[in-house]
Design goal:
heterodimer, A: 190 residues, Protocatechuate 3,4-Dioxygenase, subunit A, five-stranded mixed beta sheet, four-stranded antiparallel beta sheet, 7% helix, B: 249 residues, mainly beta, 12 strands, 6% helix, 23% strand
Chain lengths: 190, 249
């Protein structure tokens, strides 16, 4: 057994995350003009219903074929077929608590336990007042059959599952993140 | 039990990262840090087995870096005010393996304790020669290096006479979504630790100590800059079924 080292603790990004973590191309998982691209927009709200203006959302997802350009994918790393696909998005919230990501729908994924994961994005939420990132997933409302058999969704209480489902919007989807409250978003320990 | 949960039904064998160490990280609800009260989720986190999306992650490389991104003292026409320092260290995983070619982002207040951000209204002077933002990529041994100035402490309104100890914000990707980490680096001997609820939100004193850089006299450069060493350990992996077959931990 190799040496085991203590991990570095997490700390909040604090109120000035914008200076350090803003990327001009952050929200663009795919470049503007990519065929099939849509916006995911949402608002982050706290337990008092107040929009969170000093937070940031990061997204990570497979490409439309369900592949990753990453050496640890046992199917092999595959550079994306879609030009400019980064798989990763980053958006700080604006003065009204909104974030936005331009992306395409990821493909379904084989689950190591034998099933299939429905198309999804995995999200990290950072912010002032969050001492460690929060992890959640975004699923698509137009994939009812795939969502019904998704192993992660099935592991969540039925009455909270809809907090992981985006809703249709004019130019894509809406996905609000409730840190607390009656509709508190499901957050995961990974 | 390491064999069963890594050997897959569909023939997919995924690396598994050790679960997030709840003792090392601060509890999300830490009422001494007042902003956590309305922002920490009330429901317990739900266990998410690591699948393909979690064991992969963005491998963002050189394309994001400019030539002076690691040197916060040379990003303007003139030099910033303050004590010039070098901050360097290694990024490794919990098993001591270097994390090579990974993006490290930092941001900080200037020498007077003021951030270059419109939201920072503390009336300490801004420095026209200091932005306070840096980026670097670790080398093949996981090493990174920044040149900057010692950040100042600054007041905030969390409690009476509240001051943040001097710190530098660090953001790291590692090689997988599971390893993503944002933390803060502190300086040795800071007299403000005792009253800082963010630093003290980490309950384990040994874990807290890891956030304090080490003054590094061997790397300090004569007549130029003091050096601090800040090693960062990200999550390690579970052993695979093919290693440590007898390890039944």
């Amino acid at each position: 057994m190799s040496e085991r080292l203590g991990v570095m603790p997490a700390q909040t990004v604090g109120p000035y995350l914008h200076i350090g973590l803003r990327w001009p191309d952050g929200p663009y998982v795919v470049p503007e003009g990519t065929p099939g691209a849509f916006w995911i927009r949402g608002r982050i709200v706290d337990g008092t219903g107040t929009p969170v203006v000093d937070a940031m959302v990061e997204s990570w997802q497979a490409d439309p074929d369900g592949r990753f350009d990453h050496p640890d994918d046992p199917r092999g790393a595959r550079p994306p077929v879609l030009a400019g696909f980064r798989g990763f998005g980053r958006s700080e919230t604006d003065g009204q608590g909104w974030y936005r990501l331009l992306t395409v729908k990821p493909g379904a994924l084989p689950d190591p336990e034998g099933g299939t994961e429905a198309p999804h994005l995995t999200l990290s939420v950072f912010g002032r007042g969050l001492l460690h990132r929060l992890v959640t997933r975004l699923y698509f409302p137009d994939e009812p059959a795939a969502n019904a058999v998704d192993p992660v969704l099935r592991g969540v209480d039925a009455d909270r599952r809809d907090t992981l489902l985006a809703t249709p919007a004019a130019d894509g989807f809406r996905f609000d993140i409730h840190l607390q409250g009656a509709h508190e978003t499901v957050f995961f320990a990974v | 039990m390491t064999t069963q949960d890594t050997r897959a039904g569909g023939g997919l064998v995924l690396p598994r990262y050790r679960r997030d160490d709840v003792d090392a990280h601060p509890p999300l609800l830490s009422p001494g840090y007042r902003s956590t009260v309305a922002r920490a989720p009330k429901h317990p986190l739900i266990h998410l087995p690591q699948r393909l999306t979690e064991i992969t992650g963005p491998l963002l490389g050189e394309g994001r870096l400019g030539p002076l991104d690691h040197d916060l003292t040379r990003q303007h026409d003139g030099e910033p005010q303050g004590q010039r320092i070098m901050v360097h260290g290694r990024v490794r995983d919990g098993d001591g393996r270097p994390v090579p070619r990974t993006l490290v982002e930092i941001w900080q207040a200037n020498a007077a304790g003021r951030y270059r951000d419109a939201r920072d209204t503390w009336p300490a002077p801004l420095d026209p020669h200091f932005t306070g933002v840096g980026r670097a990529l670790t080398d093949d041994q996981g090493r990174y290096r920044f040149i900057t100035v010692q950040p100042g402490a600054y007041p905030w309104r969390n409690h009476d006479n509240a001051w943040r100890p001097a710190h530098i914000h660090f953001s790291l990707f590692g090689r997988a979504f599971t390893q993503r980490l944002v933390t803060q680096m502190y300086f040795p001997g800071d007299p403000l630790f005792f009253q800082d609820p963010i630093f003290n939100s980490v309950r384990d004193p040994k874990a807290r100590e890891r956030m304090i850089a080490r003054y590094d006299h061997a790397t300090t450069t004569p007549e130029w800059a003091l050096a601090y060493e800040f090693d960062i350990v990200l999550r390690g992996r579970e052993s695979t079924p093919f290693e440590d077959e007898d390890d039944d931990e």
